[in-house]
Amino acid sequence: MCEAIGVASVEELLEVFPGELKLKRPLDLPEGLPEQELLGLLKSISKKNRTVEEYASFLGAGAYNHYLPSVVDYAISRSELYSAYTPYQPEMSQGTLQATFEYQTLICQLTAMEVSNASLYDGASATAEAVLMARRKTGRKKVLLSSAVHPEYRETVKTHLVADNESLAEVPYCTESGSTLPGASLSAVDKETACLVIQSPNFFGAIEDVSAHAEIAHKKGALLIVSIAEPLSLGLLKPPGLLGCDIVVGEGQSFGNPLAFGGPYLGFMAAKEELLRQMPGRIVGETKDTNGKRSFCLTLATREQHIRRERATSNICTNEGLSALAALAYLSALGKKGLMDLARLNLSKAHYLMQQLSALPGVTHAFGSPFFNEFVIKVEEDPQEILQGLVSSSILGGIALKRFYPELSKHILLCATEMNPKHEMDRFVRELSSFTGG
Amino acid sequence: MEEKLIFEMSVKGRHGVLPGGFDVPGESPGEVLPGVALRDDIEGFPEVSEGDVVRHFTRLASRNFGIDTGFYPLGSCTMKYNPKINEEIARLEGFARLHPYEPPELCQGALELMYELERYLAEISGMDAVTLQPAAGAQGELCGMLMIGAYFRDKGKPRGKVIIPDTAHGTNSSSSHLAGFKVVRVASEGKGVLTPEAIKSVMDEDTAALMLTNPNTLGLFESNIKEVVEVVHEKGGLGYCDGANLNALMGFMKLGEMGVDLVQLNLHKTFSPPHGGGGPGSGPLGVKKVLEPYLPLPRIVKEKALFSLDSERTRHTATVGRLKAFYGNFLVMVRAYSYLRCMGRTGLTRASEMAILNANYIKERLKGHFYLPFDTPCMHECVFTDRYQSEKGVTTMDIAKRLMDYGFHPPTIYFPLVVSGAIMVEPTETESLETLDAFIDAMKAIAEEAEKDPGLLKNSPGKTETARVDEAGAARNPRLRWVQGK
Q: Distance between CA atoms of A266 and A322, rounded to whole angstroms?
């Protein structure tokens, strides 16, 4: 090879590096490992983690423990799909492209919206992108966020508004119901407001009154953005698109993606057609090949960074393609009946758990709003101590809300899914009772 | 044959995987959710069997080309082999079934892996601190630019501009814009690299940073990098490097030692996690000490052999906040960590060496057949154009499509923009001499076809299942979802 290049050796080729910048010593990294030892090492690291398989987990808050049907891993293990790049060459990427087109369709069906993109990073960054999109569309600056939106989503939005975050304000949640009262939005939305952002079900699990908020926003010419952290709820709740919402975003992890310590997850976004040109990210469209056969390709690229540069709708390039593919496989395998049944099962599990817990002395159901698979309880003792005590019984008994809401110092956020059998919930209730009510 | 859409396979009432039985009383949504608007249908949603889904995905896969199918020399994308062991490791229960809000004492393994990965990436790039939070390269860029903005605001002297060379990835400009900066474009000089003079002519005290890529997108080492960054430093600015092309440098050069203050590393390029047909990626950002206070939260800390996540704002008052929920694309980090431990310091250096050798080999062997705008030793990729072929009316697009008929994925085309009709080839280190030769032979054959039978190229691809796709038509008349009955 060196001969073909016209150099005597690889060393000569490497003289392209200026000598004074060249490293004089090897990198301070370990030496390489053969595969067998590598697997042993990584297994031993993984075993230092306690999983939701070993513990009875009632953790939710934007990351949900759902059953992953075998067919999902089959689909995303096809390496023609997972070892491909972004489908720039449609003739060699019809698999990825058609799958993404189908994913976009599913997101539109679930949300009752007209257009969806090919995915964003996660629910939090999708919420931030929706806010930027609403500002571009309305030409207004002010952004209103319900304080019952996931705290990390709110922080992400704030980060994306850069130094301009004085235009960001929060609409308080109601301490009785745990939801965002339309009255609170009404007094906050004005003629400078670009958008109102609510989450439904919200961070406390409460289902928000989407149409009331939509009406309030629209009266002042603002857009309503609904962020959804647990999209399984769409198997049961009327979709935001039918309730007057303008942009729906959310976290698609629940659809076929493992908990994975927080990522990779899947940001989804769907909107009304009139917002299409403001939409960030890749979009796949249907077209034909020269033989007239239906085919698919990336489209409307003039919105994007590689064409539009600093005038692009977003800087996103690599998105979460394979996570979207997992969602497609998951939703197709469950199908209409499976998804709707599963949503009802989650609803039933969470309501059973809430009823059992709130029957304990010293435990109350904190908020009155209807909920899906998450809810908040209030205890008399220190939640942190209770949760630590439960860990020794192999129970992950929820999240102490004080870390996000200092005023909720006695409150615990809980989640129940199809992964929590009744006997496990009963054990949790028994164990919890030993910490509460004196 | 056309593959039906999953929706077109639906049969009313058919279903695949159903959830388990009810071991608790089945609640009626209408009763437990009073006043809540419910749905009784999901219009058009798939109603298919599990077998239908499996066949559908098998057939979709057969209509796709990945690095496991064949050579994929997509410039600037570093399509190297994705080791299978990493897929197995990423599926270990201890990594895949870990909730992000578990107490830190229950996820010590995950935190240890992330802590170590930060340290390795800092060592490779010559940086002092690393955040793993960004989900992709572009998010890493945005994170860096937000930090630069915060740094100057903290000094009481906000700056408004960022200098970006004309060879840069499109994301550089849009990330800078999103972070509130005005972009000042600077041209690379005749030799395809930046000169201190060019930077000097645009650098001023309102310029926050220079954002460059090294090696640049022409595949050339920015040999004046130290002097160029010095010009920026002299006026108080910062040097940002887009680390998308790190695959050429490992073990040879540290960007930190060239004066660079921030660099994002695309783990899914340099460190082997698969690209997933468009993600998930991971774009950690490395920074020098002076910028550490601005890193997003949480930070991973180690105290007395115990790892934890620190998101205490009172200790990190200068932080830019966060780019996403949780801590980044963890399973992509797991794959990258595994790759680093497998390769080790010697293996990484060898990888960069082979990546450079392979690119130079292709460059030398094809340069008489395709116009090479910069005939100097290249790094890990090289850029040709269609200048010779255009005399016969054949374009870069035609050449790319014809390559498919030879069983290769085309290189990156029409990028970088500074070269008309660019064909950007990045072979990576994981390809054998035989594969490179087969690619070279195909390219030579195409050059000959362009001479003798340009129509053949115009009508290509002819051997793929799908013929040339009408992309303009897709944009003119957007059909972005399937609608029942339409």
A: 9
CA distance B126 to chain A (A): 10
User: CA A174, CA A185: separation in Å to the nearest integer?
Assistant: 11
- Domains in chain B (CATH in brackets) are 86-340 (3.40.640.10), 349-468 (3.90.1150.10)
Phi, psi for residue B449 in degrees, rounded to 5:
-60, -35
Question: Which chain A residue has its CA at the smallest distance from B87's CA?
Answer: A77
Residues A179-188 have pLDDT tens digits of 999 999 999 9
First and final C-alpha spacing in chain A: 79
pTM, entire model: 0.98
φ/ψ of residue B162, rounded to 5: -135, 135
- Indicate the range of A37-41, A432-436, B260-264 predicted with least confidence: A432-436
CA Rg, chain A, in Å? 25
| Full domain range(s) for residue A350 | 56-68+335-433
Question: With contacts defined as CB-CB under 8 Å, which chain B residues touch A158?
Answer: 321
**E-strand stretches of B140-283:** 161-165, 182-186, 207-213, 238-242, 262-264
Question: How is A129-151 classified by DSSP, letter by letter?
Answer: HHHHHHHHHH---EEEEETTS-H
Task: Give the span between the Cα atoms of B327 and B99, in whole angstroms.
Answer: 11
Return the structure tokens found at A374: 């998450």
Of A71, A106, A387, the CB nearest to B54: A71
User: Would you say residue A35 lies in a domain?
Assistant: no
- Partners of residue B95 in chain A, C-beta under 8 Å: 46, 49, 260-261
What would the pLDDT profile of B376-403 be if each residue is shown by its tens digit?
999 999 999 999 999 999 999 999 999 9
